[in-house]
Amino acid sequence: MIDFTALIKSTEAYKIISAEKKSGKLSHAYLIVCDDKDNLKSYLKEIVKLILCDEEEACGRCRACRQTDAENYADVYFYPTENKISTDDVVSLIGESYVKPIEGDKKVFVLCGADEMLAPAQNKLLKTLEEPPKNVHIILGAVTEYPILTTVKSRVRKLRVQSFSDETLERALISECPDRERLKEAISLAGGSVGKALTLYGEESLTKLFSFADDLIVNMQSSKQVLKFSHEFSETGASVSDLLSVLETKFRDMLLVKEKAEDLIKNTSSVQKVKDANGYTTGAIIYALDKIFDARERKKFNANDTMLIEWLFFQILEGKYKWQK
User: Which residues lie across from 137 on neighbouring strands?
Assistant: First the structure.
């Protein structure tokens, strides 16, 4: 089971709210921004437990903590009630906010997916955000803050749950993902997101993608092979973005080998097959990394995936021959 408590406690957002609780200065409303959509509610629950628990930090054992996890605590309300937070949900929140707490001395309202709220629902919430009843806390959770009205954001304390380090993710997920090498590969593409790391770990295309990247770096020797490797990549079922991330990881690790800094390589088994690939001088590796960056920029402008991949493969080859000793 993933320890979301340990994960969220490592974030600056949690530490800030914890400090505000200790000083008796909890905000009446928080906007928690976290790009891990799959686990957003789990992080929000940890914030709720922090606010409600009698201990300085959430103990995880008391009734408030346990029942919040189960979404059964009488003084905690979760929205949406269906797919997206609606005007009806906001009306319910407003009405319930004026009813005294039943089990404790605080009431907490959690709006998960606040970035998907339509403008009428957001506008209806404004007065309650500005003048909430005593001992009421409203937690808005969002993947991105941009769809949220400026008038809403001006009435809340905005905090961001940052991406997690590779080491933190590995500690948190190893019990769920026992294949350590595969987990490291997934984490290397996950951008610090628990949800994406878990998704990638479960995808068969991940193993194919890393194997393909090894084959490409070691065995692509001439421009005649570019179309062949382009076709083989399409058969992996992986995305262009993931391929760029894998190639970037591989070439960066190869550069660390060249610079005698192998102790900085996070996944030593992943670099073994490519670290001594023929034709890759330090200059060629740096050139490849530059072209991977260029490919990412081109991707932003909706470049054709097949043409983009073929262009990149040609560039990698050009770098090999351009920077030969």
Answer: 108
User: Does the pLDDT value for residue 267 go beyond 80?
Assistant: no
Neighbours of 193 (CB within 10 A): 21
**Taking the complete model, does pTM exceed 0.85, yes or no?**
no
Among residues 85, 92, 48, the alpha carbon closest in space to that of 70 is found at: 48
* Pairing mode, strands 29-33 and 136-142: parallel
Instruction: Measure CA 201 to chain center.
Output: 14
Copy the structure tokens of residue 262: 């192998």
- Predicted confidence (pLDDT) at residue 100 exceeds the cutoff of 90: yes
> Rounded to whole angstroms, how far apart are CA atoms 103 and 74?
7
DSSP designation for 115: G
Residues 20, 22, 28, 34, CA torsion sign:
positive
Distance CA 18, CA 23 (A): 9
Positive or negative: CA dihedral 121, 126, 132, 133: negative
> Quick one: how many helices (H) and strands (E) in the chain?
16, 5
CA 264 to each of CA 243, 255, 259: distance values in angstroms, whole numbers, following the listed order: 22, 11, 11
What distance in Å separates the CA atoms of residue 187 and residue 245, rounded to the nearest whole number?
11
